[in-house]
Structure formats: structure tokens, C-alpha cells
Specification:
Pathway: Amine and polyamine biosynthesis; spermidine biosynthesis; spermidine from putrescine: step 1/1. With 557 residues, the protein is an alpha/beta fold. 51% of the residues lie in helices and 14% in strands. It is elongated and about 90 Å long. The two termini are 50 Å apart.
């Protein structure tokens, strides 16, 4: 424990220094360039800024890992648990630096600025040029994610013990009071950083530039605090080294910020090929189009996942829509489907008088209407006078939807294993969908890939049954091995892609997947092939699976 000493006269620039001083002698004096009160304020302001930067690094790792790998719950758990563990180790390790607290804090902040600022770009680069997140956690880019989480946590954990030592050198204070002051500044800074990331940095600067600027702020504040306030606590050599380190860190971050646009273009080309035609960030997700001109097939990617392949989307969308249209179909609800392709198939049935589309991303709808290639592919379906598009979350929208309002509900939503989509495959969601079905109405659900995710697919079936619906499942194979369209395609453009799609047709009475004899003839489906698809799905049935609910999701990531 630090030995007490008579306090300095009020307003004096002389501070108290204990065994952690530069010479380690109790009672040695530390001269400050400002008054004690101002010095304490500056230290607490530094704590505030460093805490905000630390939380931005943390959220950046979580957001990027979720974007690249999906399953936000798993990525958040991994990043946070590793970082919290590493913070404890960093706090213990910082005890060895207490005798040189100023130099140690300066070095820690320079290292943290470099590691945290460059983490997003490094992870994105490894992902783009290797394209493989599979395997165990100890291999490939996943190991890099853990390494960055570990390094960032170690450095953040080392901050508070060193700051505690520095603030006590300015003015002696009981340990409880010092911890309270530092904790208050730390927590308020974390609040500001946590709010700034989603509402300021991410929408205005993006993930890469936001992390780089955060690192620059971190380096400037950490270096200025040590070199300006605790300059006398450093040897001349330590000052030179710290200045050199911060200049180098800022040079690296600035160079990366200047080159970030070129880097992003090169990374996109590495992941998607050289035919990237549209790349934009909406309020919801990253949207990217490739091909669609000079005879090349159009591909639509949402957050790195292949949503539409012009080579085989017809087979997917015909299988999704046409079996559900056998029966009354004047009023149709499409959940998702902002690309307009499911709506295109619905409108081929002349009996469809009204089609409501509920899509969460207005940017996708604008693209489906305005992009020449995508609007040509969907036959300008979203501009048909029978179609009304609502921008909303499907779950929230269904809660206020009128009862018995639709003859057909088409659920064209992302794979249930993507954490953000699990609520759209829950018993509660299907209960809401059942409520909007008219007597004799049908609900069709894309349930994922049967061959590679049979438990997920049959969990969709058991969940629909738990919601009070009768079901019939069918399975359609993709025409191109290793490259398939539909919401269950592989995690990214470079990942393994599922080769089939599974669908579940549900109704209050036992449904029978058949084509409408009075409707249009699908180009890829017949009644005979659909009957074979039903038998193929039934052979994969997994029995005894419990339903998935909001509080107990059953799907894998």
C-alpha cells in the first residue's frame, strides 16, 4: 500500500509520488506543468477517451466477425469472453510496470492504437484473400480473430492499473475514491463509444475507416497525456522512443486510411471476382451486385451471402411460389423478397389481385426497381399496380396485420441458422402467420438446405406443426453443383454452397404440394417432379425434434 504523506499546498504544481515514482523513493516529487486539479481532470479525460476507443475496438471485432461469419451470438460470445479474460491477464501484467507507469501507459496506448485500429482491415484482408472460415477455432482467420481479441483485451486491461498509479502521483487519494473516479470516467467513456459506433462511425465512416480513426484518436490522446502531463517522469530516451512510436503508429494509420478505398475494391475483387458492378451500404446491410451485363449472369450478395444467382434463381423461386398457389390466391403476402423475384412468380398467376411485400431493407427494393439488370430479371414486378411494398420487420408487421387477410403467405427469408433470422422461424412467428391466413390459405416457408442441414430443415417442420399447422415438405436440387441461389446459400461468395433447397408447405388442413392446373406452367417444375421432390425430402426426415421458440432457438449457426 502507498505510504501517506502530507498533502501539497492548494494550487501547488508539486504532486505526491510514492514507490511507483521514477526513482522508486517514497516522497520524491513529481513536477507537473499544470495545477493538481487540472492534472486530475486531464487524466480522467484521458480515461474517458481511452475507454470509448476500447469499446469501439470491441464492437468493431464483433460486427466484422458477424458480417463475415454470421451467427452474431457465437461471434459476440467468443470476442467478449476472450477479451474479458485477456483484460484480467493484462491487469495482472501491468503490476510489473507500476514503477514506470507513465512510460508503460504511453507504450500500451501506442500498441493499442495500432492493434485496434488495424484489426478490422487485417481481418477483412485475411478473409478476402483466403476465403475460408471453416475448420476449428485454432486455424485460419478464426485464430486471427481470437488473437486480435486477446491482444486488445490484454492492452485494455493494462490501462486501469497504470492510470491508477498516475492519478495517485498527482494527488494522494484513498484507494476507494480513486477507483470510483476512474470507474466513472471509464464507464461514461464506454457509453459514448458504444453509442458512437453504430450511430456515427459505422454509418458515416464504415468499419475500416472508423477503426483507423479511432486508433488515431487513441494514439494522440495517450501520447499527449504522457508527454504533456508526465513528461518529467520520463527519461530523455523514453521520451524519444515514445514520440517515435506514436509518429510511426499515426503514419501507419494515416497511410491505411488513405488507401482504404483501394483496399476495399481489391478485397471485393478477391472475394467476388472482377465483375463487381454495384457495392453500397444500406441502413440494414451491405448490398453488392456482380454480372448482369454482356451476357454474364447476375449475382446479388447481401452481407456477403449469395442471395440471387441468375443461373438458377428461376428453379428456386418457382419451387417456392407455385405449389402454394394451388387453390385460392387472390390475396398474397410475400415476407422478404425485396429483390422482386418471388413476386414475379406470384404475378404469373392472373388470379393474384393484390400482392403485399414486407421487406426490411428499402435499399434492396430501390435497387430491384432501378438497376437495369435486376429489374429486368424480376420483370419489373415491384412496379406492377397490384403490388404494394412496405418497409418493415416481418415479425413486427405481422403482429399488427389483419386476421384472415391472405390466401397465400410466401416466406422468402434468410436461412434460420443466421442468428438475426431465427425469430422469423420461431413458433411465435408462425403463429402470427397462421392468424393472417384465410380459411383454406397456405403458407410456404423456405427451410434451408436439406442435404447439409437436415436438423434445421426438419426443425422448421416441427415448429410449423407446433404453431397449429399441418405440413408437407419437398426438396428441390440446384442445377449447378456447388453454386446455388436462395437464402440458404453458403456463408460467402467463396464458401461452400448448398446444392439443394428445402421447402415446407403448411395449412390448417393437410396440404398437398401440387401445381395449379389453371395456372401458368413453370419451366422447371411438373407435378411428377414435385411428387418426387416430396418423396426425396421425406427420406431425410429427422423425427422427435422440438420446435424453435423466441426464448429457445433450435437452429445451428
Amino acid at each position: 500500500m502507498i505510504e501517506p504523506q502530507a498533502p501539497a499546498p492548494p494550487g501547488s504544481a508539486q504532486s505526491w509520488d510514492g514507490p511507483g515514482g521514477p526513482g522508486g523513493d517514497a516522497g520524491s516529487a513529481l513536477r507537473l506543468p499544470v495545477r493538481q486539479g487540472t492534472g486530475r481532470f486531464l487524466v480522467l479525460a484521458g480515461v474517458f477517451v481511452c475507454a470509448a476507443c476500447g469499446l469501439v475496438y470491441e464492437l468493431e471485432l464483433v460486427a466484422l466477425a458477424t458480417y463475415l461469419m454470421g451467427d452474431s451470438v457465437a461471434q459476440t460470445s467468443v470476442v467478449l469472453s476472450v477479451m474479458v479474460f485477456a483484460m484480467g491477464i493484462g491487469s495482472l501484467a501491468a503490476k510489473r510496470l507500476r514503477r514506470h507507469a507513465a512510460a508503460g501507459f504511453g507504450a500500451v496506448e501506442a500498441a493499442l492504437a495500432l492493434v485496434g485500429g488495424c484489426s478490422a482491415m487485417a481481418l477483412y484482408a485475411v478473409f478476402a484473400w483466403t476465403g475460408d472460415w471453416g475448420g476449428v477455432w485454432a486455424s485460419g482467420p478464426r485464430a486471427l480473430l481470437v488473437a486480435f481479441s486477446l491482444a486488445t483485451g490484454l492492452l485494455i486491461g493494462a490501462e486501469v492499473p497504470l492510470l491508477m498509479e498516475l492519478i495517485q502521483r498527482i494527488r494522494r487519494q484513498d484507494a476507494g475514491g480513486a477507483v470510483a473516479d476512474l470507474s466513472a470516467a471509464d464507464y461514461v467513456g464506454a457509453l459514448v463509444g458504444g453509442l458512437a459506433f453504430p450511430f456515427l462511425l459505422l454509418p458515416l465512416l464504415g468499419q475500416l475507416t472508423g477503426a483507423l480513426i479511432t486508433g488515431a484518436v487513441n494514439a494522440v490522446v495517450g501520447g499527449a497525456l504522457v508527454l504533456g502531463l508526465f513528461r518529467q517522469d520520463l527519461t530523455r530516451r523514453a521520451r524519444r522512443l515514445l514520440v517515435t512510436a506514436n509518429v510511426c503508429v499515426l503514419a501507419v494509420l494515416a497511410s491505411a486510411a488513405v488507401l482504404v478505398d483501394d483496399f476495399e475494391r481489391a478485397a471485393r475483387h478477391a472475394m467476388y471476382g472482377s465483375d463487381v458492378r454495384v457495392a453500397l451500404r444500406t441502413d440494414v446491410q451491405e448490398v453488392l451486385l456482380t454480372g448482369g451485363r454482356d451476357g454474364r449472369p447476375l449475382n446479388l450478395f447481401l452481407d456477403g451471402r449469395l442471395r440471387v444467382s441468375g443461373r438458377d434463381e428461376l428453379r428456386y423461386h418457382e419451387a417456392l411460389v407455385h405449389p402454394a398457389m394451388h387453390g385460392p390466391h387472390a390475396r398474397v403476402l410475400v415476407l422478404g423478397g425485396g429483390d422482386g423475384l418471388a413476386v414475379r412468380e406470384v404475378l404469373r398467376h392472373t388470379g393474384a389481385r393484390r400482392v403485399d411485400v414486407v421487406e426490411i431493407d428499402a435499399g434492396v427494393v430501390r435497387l430491384a426497381r432501378r438497376d437495369p439488370a435486376l429489374s429486368a430479371l424480376n420483370a419489373h414486378a415491384l412496379d406492377d399496380p397490384r403490388v404494394r411494398v412496405t418497409t418493415a420487420d416481418a415479425f413486427d408487421w405481422l403482429r399488427g396485420a389483419p386476421r384472415a387477410a391472405y390466401d397465400v403467405v410466401v416466406s422468402d427469408l434468410p436461412h434460420p441458422g443466421i442468428t438475426a433470422s431465427t425469430k422469423l422461424y420461431s413458433q411465435e412467428f408462425y403463429g402470427l402467420a397462421r392468424r393472417v391466413l384465410a380459411p383454406g390459405g397456405r403458407l410456404v416457408v423456405h427451410g434451408g438446405a436439406v442435404a447439409t442441414r437436415p436438423r434445421d430443415f426438419w426443425t422448421v417442420d416441427s415448429t410449423l406443426r407446433a404453431a397449429g399447422l399441418r405440413t408437407a415438405a419437398y426438396r428441390v436440387s440446384g442445377r449447378r453443383a456447388g453454386f446455388a441461389a436462395g437464402p440458404d446459400r453458403g456463408a460467402t461468395a467463396t464458401a461452400h454452397v448448398h446444392r439443394d433447397w428445402g421447402f415446407v408447405l403448411a395449412a390448417r388442413n393437410v396440404p398437398e404440394p401440387r401445381l395449379d392446373p389453371a395456372g401458368p406452367r413453370p419451366r422447371t417444375l411438373t407435378d411428377a417432379s414435385l411428387a418426387a421432390d416430396v418423396r426425396a425430402a421425406e427420406r431425410t426426415r429427422v423425427t422427435g425434434l422440438p420446435p424453435s421458440t423466441l426464448v429457445h432457438p433450435r437452429y445451428t449457426g
